[in-house]
Amino acid sequence: MxxxxxxxxxxxxxxxxxxxxxxxTEPNTAFSLKLYNTGIQINLFKCFFYTTVPVxxxxxxxDRPELIKAVIxxxxxxxxxxxxxxxxxxxxxxNQITCTELGVSNAFNPWESVEASxxxxxxxxKRFGNVEKALxxxxxxxxxxxxxxxxxxxxxxxxxxxxxxxRMKYESPLIRDVFVISPYFELGDEFSVGCYxxxxxxxxxxxxxxxxxxxxxxHTAKIYPRLNHNFAPVIGEENGSLLLGFSYQSVPDYGLEVxxxxxxxxxxINGFFRLWDFRFTxxxxxxxxYAGVVK
Length: 295
Fold this sequence. Notes:
About 30% of the residues lie in helices and about 40% in strands. By secondary structure, it is an alpha+beta fold. Mean pLDDT is about 90; it is low at about 1-15.
């Protein structure tokens, strides 16, 4: 019964991989298996981390810049697109609720993320009277600390950050991001091979591209200017034809992208959702569709 349920889920999901945010925020992704109406496709994923600019670039004026660096180090290891299992995002690991409270539209934008972290810590320190409780509240939430006091885990987190603060006086770490490459092959009505790539520029604009060769050469490129950490318009090309659409993601749980080829008015619908440790996917592009699983 469980196997039957698994097959039904894989074949009937209504959301899929498209927006590069999915892979950029999941650098441990290893492979995907996609079942097409015309065959099967297997993708392998390789993520390459690279460093960009010093984190001090985004910190600006503050009384304790080393503390901010220590928080970022502990929260995200200076990875711009870090996402926790519960949905905390970016360098400072802000969740959706905190982003709304602090007026953060794009938690993957390092300028917004670091500035919000500074304001948030300052507010917490004023509320709780000392930096140790403020850090505990940053970690486990101010409501919990206000009602029950900091837990052992919260105090342990605070001590970890404070121990790093001294070291940060002599360090200026570089922030990190990731470039994703995914070679694949497809078997079915025809045999084809291809490669997909995705990267982001400072969490502000994401890019993806795909090239494939089977009976003929095909190529796609898309740009995703981030209006916020959930939504981006899509502008691109598919074999020389203009693509227009939108993408909505609530990482790490689900996402949906819709685009239209302006030459033939065909639609592309892609999405994904998370269940257990897997991402289930489905996409449709003209007469072609697939369902799959990503691990």
